[in-house]
Design goal:
- Helix 2 links the parallel strand 1 and strand 2.
- The two termini are 30 Å apart.
- The protein is 41% helix and 17% strand.
- With 367 residues, the chain is of the alpha/beta class.
Length: 367
């Protein structure tokens, strides 16, 4: 299997897959009953929001029991389950690059759009409803800075070139690690180097790392997760950072001195998908349809700040809450979506662009 993950992630996925197989053998026939659906919802406040906005209403409407899986499930893990015909996940959720990996290996069921109401389908962009998955929400990668370090009375950073400008905007930086490929600060490095947003792809990888060379000495932390960058900015470890927008919005809600800059925010989609061999595939189809309705997306967005992929949801969200979301119509005019197809593209050497970035990162970060 040619999945785009590094060795650490692969080891984690392998051990988790073994555990998942053990779970199935323990649960036996009860797991295969048609009245259940096993759904990846990760954990923490994200899981709590899903429970209130989607899981409980779904169970009430359908009588189908939802069993949450409160941990990340990697693409490689799903691939091994499908290959072994030992699938313990009915509904998974991954970024578009991870889902494209799975779809390219024919490891996913097709989504049954015949069960959707036309008004719901009309509210979703084409890129949110693909053959292999449905995007329930969108989030963005943004710039965030400490307003005590960069107060409104003085110049504040507004572009990625400003982020890279240590003379005009001195301070400690934090950027995401590139160890997983698609999640790295690649586009931001190119934007900082003057590449227009419509010329980002195909990416010039040499130019990416030349730009990162300039900022590297000033990066205090190359963070690995949303919870990590949340803690970094909460504890004033960095003055300015690249972050997921929802994490910084939540800090602002706590009254922390944080400002979010959405200028050229990078939009990322997660997709719900159904692994081939799911023992509850029909229930999985019903769950995904329910979770992507406008009213459910609106409910979720008001509990956890992820942007609805269904435009109709904004008719149900108060204006003050809507302005905190990545897909708020005003922000969409100055945003761009990550090009997942470019990341998945395979070169003459048999390696994907994601794998090329991982290999380059692993060499570069040690220098």
């Amino acid at each position: 299997m040619n999945f785009s993950i590094n060795r650490r992630r692969f080891i984690q996925a392998t051990s988790s897959a073994v555990a998942a197989g053990a779970l199935i053998s323990r649960s036996g026939a009860a797991f295969a009953q048609s009245g259940e659906v096993r759904v990846v919802v990760v954990g923490g406040n994200v899981a709590q929001a899903h429970a209130e906005a989607i899981i409980k209403p779904f169970e009430a409407e359908t009588g189908i029991k939802v069993t949450p899986i409160n941990q990340d499930v990697a693409a490689a893990q799903i691939g091994m389950m499908v290959t072994a015909k030992n699938v313990s996940v009915d509904v998974g959720v991954l970024s578009q690059t991870g889902v494209l990996d799975l779809a390219s290996h024919d490891y996913l069921e097709n989504i049954d759009y015949s069960i959707y109401k036309q008004i719901e389908l009309d509210g979703m962009e084409d890129y949110a409803r693909r053959t292999f998955g449905v995007a329930p929400y969108m989030y963005s990668s943004i710039m965030a800075f400490n307003t005590e370090k960069f107060p409104a009375s003085k110049p504040q950073p507004t572009t990625w070139a400003d982020f890279w400008d240590l003379e005009k905007f001195p301070g400690v930086r934090a950027l995401p690690t590139g160890q997983d490929g698609a999640g790295g600060p690649w586009e931001e490095a190119l934007l900082a180097d003057g590449v227009p947003v419509d010329k980002l792809y195909p990416m010039d990888i040499d130019r990416v790392f030349a730009s990162l060379d300039r900022i590297k000495p000033h990066v205090r932390k190359w963070w690995d997760s949303g919870s990590e960058i949340l803690q970094i900015m909460r504890d004033n470890v960095a003055d300015i950072a690249q972050s997921y927008d929802g994490r910084m919005v939540s800090l602002m809600g706590e009254g922390k001195p944080i400002e979010v800059n959405r200028n050229l925010q990078k939009l990322t989609l997660d997709y719900y998908y159904i692994p081939k061999g799911s023992p509850n595939a029909q229930n999985a189809q019903r769950y995904i349809e329910f979770a992507t309705r406008a009213d459910r997306q609106a409910a979720l967005a008001q509990l956890f700040p992820v942007g609805p992929s269904n435009r109709n949801a904004y008719k149900l969200i108060p204006e003050d809450a809507a302005r905190k979301l990545a897909t708020y119509p005003e922000y969409m005019t100055n945003s761009y979506a990550i090009n997942a197809e470019w990341y998945a593209e395979i070169g003459p050497d048999g390696a994907s662009n994601t794998q090329r970035l991982v290999q380059r990162w692993n060499d570069w970060i040690l220098r």
